[in-house]
Amino acid sequence: MPWGSPNVNRNRTYESNAADLREQLKRVNAELVQVRKQVAVLENERQGLSNAIAALDGIKLGSLPISATTATPAGMTRLQISTNETVRMWGTLLDQARAVLIGAKAPLHIDEIVKRMQANGFHANRAPAALRASLVSGLDRRIGRGETFYKPQPAVYGLREWESKTETA
Q1: How many domains does the structure of the chain reveal?
Q2: In the predicted model, is pLDDT for residue 54 greater than 60?
Q3: Domain that holds residue 50
Q4: What pLDDT is stored for residue 16 in this prediction?
Q5: Which of 11, 24, 100, 121 could cross-link to 47 by cystine, CB 3.0-4.6 Å?
Q6: How far apart are CA 158 and CA 160, in angstroms?
Q7: DSSP state for residue 147 in the 8-state scheme
Q8: For the chain, where are the E strands, in sequence order?
């Protein structure tokens, strides 16, 4: 037996084991992608149900109007996941901001509103600064029309129905 033969056999064994491990890693990665897709779908479904409950609670209390954005599928927004599939999610940015404020029962700084919206899964993958910019634009537009929201301090937003309570306090 030549001097180098055991090393040749050992190298073939290592290469074979490495190839097996690479194949196993590919299978595990493929399974992980599928599980992540399922988690994204379930998380969006959970968030949609949570938002629907918040909207229904608001309607029950008379604090949210029944509108296309809260009552019909036409008002749903889309959340893109890692593939070409889209998952629908209830409500608009302003509906979400309203739900956060209703939950807080007090005016909040815009950064806190964005933080709570993302903690609830709404636009969780979007950059907070981009979400904030879009939200501020919509909030200020509603304030300019005298609808839904008011601004007691710079960058602090509340619901219009609270405005008189804050001024008298």
Answers
A1: 1
A2: yes
A3: 5-168
A4: 81
A5: 121
A6: 6
A7: -
A8: 77-80, 86-89, 108-109, 149-153, 156-159
- For residue 44, CA distances in Å to 1, 69, 97, 108, 141 come to 65, 17, 17, 25, 28
SS3 category, 151: strand
Cα(8)–Cα(15) distance, rounded to whole angstroms? 11
Q: Do you know the residue count of the chain?
A: 169
Please list, residue by residue across 29-56, b when 16 or more beta carbons sit within 10 angstroms of its beta carbon and e when fewer do: eeeeeeeeeeebeebbeebbeebeebbe
Q: What is the pLDDT of residues 83-128, one digit of tens each?
A: 343 333 457 888 889 989 998 999 999 999 999 988 888 888 889 9
Half-sphere exposure of 57 (CA within 13 A, CB side): 11
pLDDT(71) > 60:
no
Model pLDDT, residue 8: 57
H, E, C per residue of 50-94: HHHHHHHHHHHCCCCCCCHHHHCHHHCEEEECCCCCEEEECCCHH
Tokens 């001097």 sit at which residue? 3
Share of the chain above pLDDT 70, in %: 69
